Each structure stands twice: as C-alpha cells, then as structure tokens.
Amino acid sequence: MSKITTSYTWQTTAAEVVRGIELAGKRAIVTGGASGIGVETARALAGAGADVTIAVRDTAAGNRVAEELNATGAKGSVSVGRLDLADRASVADFVAGWSGPLDILVNNAGVMANPLHRTVEGWESQFATNHLGHLNLALGLHDALAAAGTARIVAVSSAAHLRGGVDFDDINFDRREYDPWVAYSQSKTANVLFAVEATRRWAAEGITANALNPGGIMTNLQRHQSEEQLTAMEARRVQSNVEWKTPEQGAATSVFVATSWLLDGVGGRYFDDANEAELAAPPKPGGVAAYALDPVDAERLWDVSIGMIRS
After folding, report:
1. Which among 17, 44, 14, 41 is positioned nearest to 30, based on CA atoms?
2. Residue 288 and residue 273: Cα distance in Å, rounded?
3. Is the distance from CB of 266 to CB of 158 less than 8 angstroms?
4. Contact yes or no for 106/258 (Cβ under 8 A)
5. 24, 49 contact by CB (below 8 A)
6. Which of 102, 139, 257, 276 is the most exposed place for a label (fewest CB within 10 A)?
7. Which of 51, 53, 57, 63 is nearest to 30 (CA)?
8. Helices 252-259 and 36-47, interaxial angle, to 10°?
9. Are 128 and 186 in contact (CB under 8 A)?
C-alpha cells in the first residue's frame, strides 16, 4: 500500500489544490461551512463546479456566506441547511430534508477545548459534536453516499489527536476530571478512527473516508480560549517555528482529500499539508498516532458510538 505524496506544502491553498479539477454535477455537504476553513472549503468546491450545501447552526450566517459565494461567479451553487450536530433531532431533520446522491461529505464543523458542557443525553459536548454528530450524519446519509457510486467522506481531525486516544472506560468524563484539551484530543482521535472503520464497512459500496489535519489556523474555533491560553499557544508556535496558516491554506488538505484523483478508492488514511502523514515518532513533531489508525479500536469505537446514538 503505497503512501500518497505530492508537491504541495503547508503554503498551498484550496484554490491551488482544486485547479484543473471539474466537479460539475457533483453534490457536496460541508458542515460548519459558514466560518473559517469551512467557508474556503465550500468556495473551492463550488468554484470547481460542485453544488454545495453548507450545514450550519446559524442559518443567518450561512445565508450571508452563501450569498457572497454565489455572487463570486462560482460554477456551482451554494445553499444552506440547518444542522446542530449535538442535537439528534436536528441531524434527523437535516437527513430527512436531503434527497438524491451525495458525492462529498466534509465533516468540518467542530468545537475546541470548551468548558465542560453536556448534551441532554449526558454526553461530553466535544465528543458529541466532533464525533458522534458527524457519525450520526454519515449514517443518515449512507444511502445518498452509496447512490453516488464513488463518494468520499472527509473527516477534519487535528494534530491535537497526538495528545491522547479514546478512553473507552470514561468517554464522557463521568469519573475522571474534565480537561478540555484531553476531551478535544479524544474527539479528534475519534475522527481518524471513524475514517478507518467507515472505509472498512462501506468501501465495497463505493464510499471511502479519510481524515486530515488542517494545520494551525486562527479562526473562531479558538473562541473558548482565554487571553492567557492564546498567548501560550502563540509562544508554543514560535518555539516550534510553525507558521499560522490562512483559512485558504487551512482548507487545502480538506479539498485535496475530497477531490484528488490520487485518492480514488483510497480510504482509512490521514493527511497533513495535502500529503499522507508518516506515523508519529516523538520527539519528532507531527505525523499520525498509531492508535488513531488501529482497526480494532476503530471497530470498537464504531460499536460504542452506535450504542450511544441509538440509546
């Protein structure tokens, strides 16, 4: 199984990745498409001809983005659907409103390192939003994805997954002390494991899923961080000699995973800067943790998650 490599770098933009790719007749959903890299993901896909639905909690913000993108002369159209990933009824309503095939599902929306909050079911909110909501959405859209014949699911993870895996004994922090970054890391590892198991289960139906790290981008994802935390984050960035990406650069790997011919029939992998990542080897930075690609944990997480969603 050869590793996928390209000439793209951290500076590559979504527009550069999609240049020359024709998506006319394709249909895509981008969750969280009203802000940050979601906007640029939708812009690139629509610019290449796809009809894009941005699935958002705030439809007023979504409509403003859709109007702006449609006014730029994109070859595809951009529309808006309401979706609250932490609300099972909202996911069900969104799925019920979808008809016809779906070629690309970009699971982009998320929350990061917020104070402890639980859904009505008692689920920790980061796990509920970042993982369970997207799994529930994919399950609901399974038939639409299968109908497309060669559908792709894009799971936006993070380098934060390297901080730790899924604690199957206490996913919702019922017994251990809540740490917002541990919770975020768990949810981002879950994104990668989802891609592994979704591909195993659905590849025969023409559905593949891959995960990715968009890189460091300053967006409203950091809205729960204090000034002190943001200062510390900036200090770590400087110490690591890592540059912040623009939203256009941050969307590049999502768009690469969604559109590149190099990924035809390829799934269950993790990408960084539009290249397949190496296995993490600390203290060397970056890469993908072996536990995030573990097929046993991927199957276990799927089964546990289904039990939670359907309880």
Report:
1. 41
2. 13
3. no
4. yes
5. yes
6. 139
7. 53
8. 40
9. no
**Three-state DSSP state, 207:** strand
Residue type, 250: G
- Which distant-in-sequence residues (6+ apart) come within 8 Å of 109 by Cβ? 31, 32, 38, 55, 56, 83, 85, 129, 133, 134
Rg of the chain over CA atoms, in angstroms? 18
- Evaluate whether 23 touches 76 at the Cβ level (below 8 Å): yes
Residue 269's SS3 state is: coil
Specify the residue for token string 């200090």. Answer: 235
pLDDT at 229 over 60: no
Enzyme catalytic residues = 184
Query: For the segment 250-303, what is each residue's pLDDT rounded down to a tens digit?
Result: 999 999 999 999 999 999 999 999 999 999 999 888 999 999 999 999 999 999
Using the structure block, give the residue that is written with the tokens 């527009």.
Answer: 15
Q: What is the pLDDT of residues 142-180, one digit of tens each?
A: 999 999 999 999 999 999 999 999 999 999 999 999 999
**Per-residue pLDDT for 136 more than 80?**
yes
Mean predicted lDDT score pLDDT of the chain:
94
